[in-house]
Design a protein that fits this description.
With 564 residues, this protein is an alpha/beta fold. It contains 23 helices and 20 strands. The protein folds into two domains: 282 residues, Rossmann fold (3-Layer(aba) Sandwich); 253 residues, Rossmann fold (3-Layer(aba) Sandwich). Strand 11 and strand 12 form a beta hairpin. The longest helix has 23 residues. The structure holds pyridoxal-5'-phosphate. The site of pyridoxal-5'-phosphate has 12 residues, from helix 2, helix 18 and helix 19.
Length: 564
């Protein structure tokens, strides 16, 4: 990149994970996919931004499932040289007084009009580093708490140094995508230190740091925020941080990454309206806005729908709002495009899992990180009831996918439970659990099923984005009212809700009954007997939701509310 272009970049976006391409295993799930989609839309819109992340050389993990659903985790070797270029730049950070050297790889995101976003992948796998330090940028969300802290030092502190060394001299805003990158704000604060000043409150220039920092939180559950014992942080960083300013980032002898970001950011946001509310309740006293997440439409649109939109809504690729005109696309063509996407999914599922599924049966999709609050087994709560619905209201088949975090015992148990239910249901209902959920499967499933199901325990879903991918491809959602669906659901117009907005004392058995009721009385009869109504819902999912829940609208909000 030439000097002039380096000088033009004003915003630095920091993220622990990023999902650009299924072959680049540098993401685990929603947070990374969102980061990738955000950066693609920044490129499409020509935003003067750069990004920083970790190399995650061995990925998150590849999932292997045994016959009973036991999950094994295998490291991934993704071909980094195919995607990244090594820059002639090195920086270092000190951890326990050891110098840890960092090199930097660059990935270029190209937008539809040719504008670019450079993304910098930090890599400590250098001969001059110790064996342990060489592995610090290997595993996304791997290792123990100490490993995680070291990774966050590389990302936050190493990241700020890396972009300066590359030559970006005019960065005005640092955007922390989740608290993993919070140490960058302490690095900036440390630089404002006036030596010799006795009054702590005058010693550091908090205001100048706040003016530079933007924080997006994604976690509506207190336990989900990164915290480290204070002695860990002191052991790792010695005195190289403003430890004299305890009230802004130390609580109960812990350093909490979210508190750092909250205290050192001028603009803070949650990722859906409801999530903004929940975050304001969790952290009273802060001004917290919300910007609802989106998806990058060109990434998630099935080939058949892309052709359809190109034909009926020319220009939609650079103007996502214009998908509102999808209401004028003839229903038969919507049907045909969906049939092609469905065929692709069913062929994939049959080839991968020998599921023996067919193209005509009503197909339900459920794919996400497997963890208890997301209740992947809700649909299988009462299998006799499910069989009754299948026999009386219309035949169903189900596609599942999802990984559990290696240390999430509850999530791993859930996969086994689903496997055992699959066996019980086998004679009656075809269900496949696909191994190793990734972006390729995410696209196939969200575009190829007839109904996208989502049923987390509210209010724990910050936003969710898979349901948006479904809308884009004309697939209606049946979902609990949480995250983005509170905004996206118009009952019987864009899809359906499970239960009410209630969050306190929510009863899973009741949610399961609601789910069965909607399937039996409304959804299956409409799918099988009232095709005209069904296609109308498909069109409204596109026109009302895909035109809004996309990263083009989202990035414009960030530019107007956070960056300017
Ligand atoms: C879209 C996507 C996600 C996001 O999932 P949500 O559960 O809707 O937040 C996660 N993983 C993959 C592979 C995806 O494609």
């Amino acid at each position: 990149m030439n000097k002039q272009d380096l000088g033009k970049r004003k915003i630095a976006y920091f993220t622990m994970e990023v999902g650009f391409d299924p072959k680049m295993a540098t993401y685990s799930g929603g947070l990374g996919v969102l980061a990738g989609d955000t950066l693609k839309s920044c490129a499409d819109l020509g935003v003067s931004l750069i990004a920083v992340t970790l190399l995650n050389e061995k990925g998150y993990f590849a999932q292997k499932l045994g016959a009973e659903g036991a999950q094994a985790e295998v490291p991934v070797d993704w071909p980094k040289e195919e995607f990244l270029t090594l820059l002639p730049v090195q920086v270092s950070v000190n951890i326990e007084d050891r110098e840890v050297r960092i090199r930097v790889w660059e990935y270029i995101v190209k937008g539809i009009t040719g504008a670019t976003i450079p993304v910098h992948f930090l890599d400590t796998n250098l001969q001059e580093n110790s064996e342990y330090d060489r592995g610090l940028t290997s595993f996304l969300y791997g290792g123990d708490q100490w490993y995680r802290l070291c990774q966050e030092i590389i990302l936050g502190i190493g990241g700020v140094r890396a972009i300066e060394a590359i030559g970006y001299k005019n960065i005005e805003k640092y955007h922390m995508n989740e608290g993993h990158a919070s140490l960058l704000a302490l690095e900036l604060l440390e630089r404002t230190k006036k030596d010799g000043e006795q009054d702590v409150h005058k010693k550091y220039d908090l205001e100048s740091v706040r003016n530079k920092c933007i924080f997006t939180t994604h976690t509506p559950v207190a336990a989900g925020h990164d915290r480290f014992p204070l002695d860990f942080v002191k052991r790792a960083l010695r005195s190289n941080l403003p430890f004299e300013m305890p009230d802004i980032f130390i609580r109960d002898n812990e350093i909490n990454m979210t508190w750092i970001a909250l205290n050192l950011s001028k603009y803070i946001n949650g990722v859906a309206k409801k999530h903004g509310e929940v975050t304001r309740e969790m952290f009273p006293g802060y001004t917290i806005d919300s910007i609802t997440n989106g998806i990058h439409l060109l990434t998630w649109v099935a080939t058949s729908f892309k052709k359809l939109y190109d034909k009926y809504i020319p220009g939609w690729q650079s103007d996502y709002f214009s998908l509102r005109y999808a209401l004028g696309i003839p229903k038969e063509e919507i049907f045909q495009a969906h049939f092609e996407a469905k065929k692709e999914l069913i062929d994939y599922v049959n080839a991968r899992a020998g599921a023996g599924m067919d193209y005509d049966t009503f197909t339900i999709g459920f794919a996400r990180r497997v963890t208890p609050y997301k209740r992947a087994d809700l649909l299988l709560t009462d299998i006799n009831r499910l069989v009754e619905i299948n026999d009386k209201a219309g035949r169903i088949q189900i596609v599942y996918a999802g990984k559990a975090h290696p240390r999430d015992g509850g999530g791993k148990e859930l996969i086994k439970k689903i496997f055992s239910r699959i066996k019980e249901l086998k004679p009656k209902i075809k269900i496949a659990y696909l191994e190793n959920y990734d972006m390729t499967q995410g696209k196939l499933i969200t575009s190829g099923v007839d109904l996208w199901l989502n049923n987390p325990l509210p209010p724990q879903e910050a936003s969710g984005t898979s349901g948006m991918k479904a809308c884009l491809n004309g697939v209606p959602n049946l979902s609990v009212l949480d995250g983005w669906w509170i905004e996206g659901c118009i009952e019987n117009v864009t899809g359906w809700a499970i239960g009410t907005l209630q969050t306190q004392g929510r009863d899973s058995a009741q949610d399961a009954r609601d789910l069965y009721q909607k399937l039996e009385k409304i959804i299956l009869p409409m799918f099988y007997n009232e095709k005209d109504k069904w296609f109308d819902i498909m069109r409204h999912a596109i026109a009302l939701n895909a035109s809004f829940f996309n990263t083009q609208r989202m990035v414009q909000e960030y530019v107007l509310n956070a960056y300017l």
